[in-house]
Amino acid sequence: MPCVWPDGSLSSSGRLMLAAVGPDSTAEDVAGTTGIPLFRVRSSLRELLAAGFISEQGGHFKQTAQGVEKVKSDD
Amino acid sequence: MTTIEEPEVRAALPRLNEPAPAFEAVTTHGKLRLADFAGSWLILFSHPADFTPVCTTEFIAFAEIYPELQKRGCELIGLSIDSLYSHIAWVRNIEEKAGVKIPFPVIADLDRKVATAYGMVMPGESKTEASRCVFVIDPKGVLRAMIYYPLSVGRNMDEFVRLVDALKTGDENHVATPANWRPGDKVVMPAPNTTELADERAGEGLECIDWYLCKKSL
């Protein structure tokens, strides 16, 4: 159940988690906002990071320009 | 004719109160690491094979106790030496035939990396399947309990909930729990380790059989 497919599209939970990443979010913040278990959020944030939709510094995440575009295009 | 016997690979078993072996594995909920569960209790359990009768009854029973485990801050993850597509087909089949959704992830351990690290394969029982193993891992990633059942015996789910309750109670109150303890029962005080403490214990208002076995209510 990857949240990012090889073609770059997102699963429903992937979209939910990407949209929940604010300008300074932790994995716990995203889990709290989405109601998705923390272990799944941690795993999915790794995928979103690898796909370039979010960036990370010291355990804090924010959407990249690519991530912002993705959220807009899925609206 | 001389036959060459395949060398038997004997995996070391993990040890209690040591860090649980780290893993990154493909699961029905995506690629997960042990570290993804940091901060919560975790029960990692193995089953011999998908689409088998005893394992199916166990999966339904694990799904039934999952809400109780979550109330206790405990996650659940299964494992067998089967493919991801077998797992997906099986959990969908359980939902279709038994009406039970399997809410926890299941590791597809085809390369046996996790099974080997945790000593789940008992060659005397089966060289190709994991036995019915249960590992309780605490929020710091330390292995706190291990239970091994044979292939032919389905597990008692109540015991795993009780075990998590007992471990948490012991940690929070610096006590031990007696045989058949249930939440609300009296707990066991650590035995005194000096004669002075043994003498003083009598005046502490505890329920004592003798100086070394005293209980109290929490």
Strand order of the largest sheet of chain A: 1-2
Lateral strand order in the biggest sheet of chain B: 5-4-3-6-7
- CATH top level of chain A is Mainly Alpha
In CATH, the architecture of the largest domain in chain B is 3-Layer(aba) Sandwich
> Helix segment count of chain A?
4
- State the CATH class of the largest domain in chain B: Alpha Beta
Question: What proportion of the residues of chain B is helical, as a percent range?
Answer: 25-40%
CATH fold annotation of chain A = Arc Repressor Mutant, subunit A
As for the number of domains of chain B, it is: 2
Rough outline of chain B: elongated
For the record, what is the CATH homologous superfamily label of the largest domain in chain B? Glutaredoxin
User: Major sheet of chain A: size, sense and barrel closure?
Assistant: 2 strands, antiparallel
Compute the number of helices of chain B: 5
End-to-end Cα distance of chain B, whole Å, is: 70 Å
What is the makeup of the main sheet of chain B? 5 strands, mixed
Number of strands of chain B: 10
CATH topology of the largest domain in chain B: Glutaredoxin
Structure description:
The complex is a heterodimer of chains A (75) and B (218). Chain A is mainly alpha-helical and 75 residues long. Chain A has one domain: Winged helix-like DNA-binding domain superfamily/Winged helix DNA-binding domain (Arc Repressor Mutant, subunit A), CATH 1.10.10.10. Chain A contains four helices and two strands. Chain A has a two-stranded antiparallel ribbon with strand order 1-2. In chain A, a hairpin with a 2-residue loop joins strand 1 and strand 2. In chain A, helix 2 crosses helix 3. The radius of gyration of chain A is 11 Å and the shape is globular. The termini of chain A are far apart. The model of chain A has no long low-confidence stretch (mean pLDDT 92). With 218 residues, chain B is an alpha+beta fold. Helix content of chain B is 29%, strand content 22%. In chain B, the strands form three sheets. Chain B has a five-stranded mixed beta sheet, covered by helices on one side. A three-stranded antiparallel beta sheet of chain B has the order 8-10-9, with no helix packed on it. Chain B has a two-stranded antiparallel ribbon with strand order 1-2. The termini of chain B are far apart. The mean pLDDT of chain B is 93.
